[in-house]
Specification:
Blueprint lengths: L5 H26 L6 H23 L3 H11 L2
Helix pairs in contact: 1-2, 2-3
């Protein structure tokens, strides 16, 4: 079960902003395939975005089983 209060929401705002920036930078790097190293960098940035998304869900989920699941998802 997901339980979001105002204090939790305010705590998550920087992570959501970081997620949006990571996705934007990753997509920008993916469009620039002609630049040396852009493919590898896009994979790194998009992997960081996936980790941040998993961390957000880990913080939001209320049960210990859910937290363990999202913690495992972060480190695939």
């Amino acid at each position: 079960m997901i339980s979001i209060t105002w204090t939790v929401f305010l705590y998550l705002v920087p992570y959501v902003v970081s997620l949006a920036i990571s996705i934007g930078v990753g997509l920008y790097a993916r469009r620039r395939y002609d630049v040396v190293g852009s493919r590898a960098y896009s994979w790194v940035v998009l992997s960081q975005a996936a980790w941040t998304l998993g961390y957000i869900f880990e913080l939001v989920v209320g049960s210990i089983e859910g937290k363990i699941f999202w913690d495992d998802v972060q480190f695939i």
